[in-house]
Amino acid sequence: MDGALLPRPAPADDPMVPRTFRIERRAAEVDGCFTLTLKATDGRPFAFQPGQFNMLYVFGVGEVAISVSGDCRDLNTLTHTIREVGTVTRAMAKLRVGDVIGVRGPFGRPWPIAEAYGNDILFVTGTVGLAPLRPLIYEVLNRREHFGKVVICYGSRGTHDILYEKQLHQWRGRFDLQVHVTVHSAPSGYRGRVGSVANLVKIARFDPDHTTAYVCRSETMTRPAVQALHDRGITSDRIYVTLERNMKCGVGFCGHCQMGPSFMCKDGPVYRYDTIEDIFTVREL
Ligand SMILES: Cc1cc2nc3c(=O)[nH]c(=O)nc-3n(C[C@H](O)[C@H](O)[C@H](O)COP(=O)(O)OP(=O)(O)OC[C@H]3O[C@@H](n4cnc5c(N)ncnc54)[C@H](O)[C@@H]3O)c2cc1C
Ligand code: FES
């Protein structure tokens, strides 16, 4: 059969072809961190699930993987919170309202939600790790009646880098949510908690036999967090974590993100902990 006669996907549906999005709003967050609110230039909706990421393209500079940090029920707004670390994210930090960027995605496996119905929910996160977890927090709150206790344990380096601080305060004001915040170091006179997120896990109130935990931290910080969860009796099959590797294609073609038999762009970035426990320490295979 003549291949030319076969139907081809429209360019916008090709996962390797970016759609263009205009920056509607740019908000400075904590040091070196900013949030972009984007609208599709073609007006078409954008659907994603909590935990998924996009490849954001600064034209002429390059493309990076960034998790969606907004509400998945809002199909017309795409939100990303980005920390400046290198070439592309620094170029992104210079963009202004009205500028256009490329977006490919959404990619990756989302945080599972329905599996946790009936359980208490524990979020363990820190610094910019709250961004990929925020869509899941929104969704758990949207489906609040399906869960028991809901607890957020959040840690940052200092009082100056508490991401979404206003929102954490708002959540803390709810009667159906426990929000614990700690900082690693604080100026004298600080009246909040000082110490590690693992200490927050020790004091949080939940039923360890019926709790699902979602951990979003850097890999080095994930380990003590998971240990704290184990110490409280939460087994690895009820703990979900994210891993990060450099990504290029985002769709399982290039092998850039391969970790053992797993391609993190399509098998991750969210993993149930017991499925990766053995290879958790391997970097850039
Ligand atoms: C699935 C996934 C989701 C992600 N979500 C987010 C997000 O929501 N917000 C966000 O700010 N970032 C996120 N990242 C990280 C982001 O992709 C990197 O920070 C980005 O690729 C760096 O590109 P760059 O060109 O700016 O820096 P580069 O020039 O590539 O690197 C500059 C320096 O930053 C270091 N670096 C590179 N990647 C990372 C990283 N992942 N973490 C820490 N240091 C790094 C490099 O080692 C180097 O020292 C995510 C990554 C993955 C894989
Ligand atoms: S980024 Fe290319 S295979 Fe995962």
Characterization of the model:
- It is a single chain.
- It is built from seven helices and 15 strands.
- It starts with 18 loop residues before the first strand and ends in a 9-residue tail after the last helix.
- Residues 6-11 have low confidence and may be disordered.
- Strands 10-9-8-7-11-12-15 form a seven-stranded mixed β-sheet, with helices on both faces. Strands 4-3-6-1-2-5 form a six-stranded antiparallel β-sheet. A two-stranded antiparallel ribbon has the order 13-14.
- It has helices spanning 87-93, 130-142, 165-172, 197-203, 219-231, 264-267, 273-276; strands at residues 19-28, 33-40, 53-58, 62-67, 78-83, 100-107, 120-126, 150-156, 178-183, 193-194, 211-216, 239-242, 258-259, 262-263, 270-272.
- The longest helix is centred in the middle third of the chain and has 13 residues, at 130-142.
- By secondary structure, it is α/β, with parallel strands linked by helices.
- FE2/S2 (inorganic) cluster binds next to loops.
